[in-house]
Design brief:
- The chain is mainly alpha-helical.
- It has one domain.
- Helix content is about 80%, strand content about 0%.
- The chain is elongated, with a radius of gyration of 22 Å.
Amino acid sequence: MIEPVLPASSAASLLKYLLQWLRSLSRASDERKAACIHAIESVITGVRRTERYCRERDQGKVDPATEAELAAMWTELGFQLEALGVKKLAKRCNVNGQYWASPQKFSDEWWEQADIGLESVDKLARRIKAEIQVNGAPQP
């Protein structure tokens, strides 16, 4: 059987391409890791913002505009995290978005059963962030 032989210039070109591809892959992985961390930090910031509004709401200061902003923020975070492959946190963000879009539709019991409480979301976000920092970005 005759084996094809690559000319030295083709082998060198192939090696050069392979090295460039590996460098690009490493950069992409670093970029994805940074994107995941940024999205997760945005979740933690969103938790703080939502906690502040909940304190105001508990004092009788209901603001439909703030609730609309929270609905949009949580939904957008859910989409970002879903695209990055952080599915468990993405689902909780999406459910939070649904809640804030129409909080009167959901009972306190539902809120507890949905496991989307702000403390729970904060803990999950911090745990995932730590995992990403140690192991790299999750695979989509």
